[in-house]
Amino acid sequence: MTLELDSKLFELQKACAVYKATDPLADWVLFAVTRYITTGRATRDFERMFLAYPDDLWTEMIKACLNGDRSDSGIMRTMKARLRKYS
Asked: Is this prediction's pTM over 0.90?
C-alpha cells in the first residue's frame, strides 16, 4: 500500500501546486496529510478513504481545508470529515 499512498500524495502535491495561485498556503494541506500518514497516525480506514478519493476533487478538498482551522489538526479534521462524507 505504500506505493499507492506515495502516488496519491503526489496527486495531492500536484493539486496543491496548482492551487497555490489562489492561496499560497495550499502546501499546508499537503504537509499535514503527509505528516499524518508518515508518522503512523493514519488508520487503515483513513488510508483506504484517502486512496479512494478521486483526484479531480482535490481542489475542492484543499479549498475546504484552508477555509477552516489552518492548523495541522484542523486541516486533518476537515479532511477526515470530507473523506467520510464521500465514502
From this structure: yes
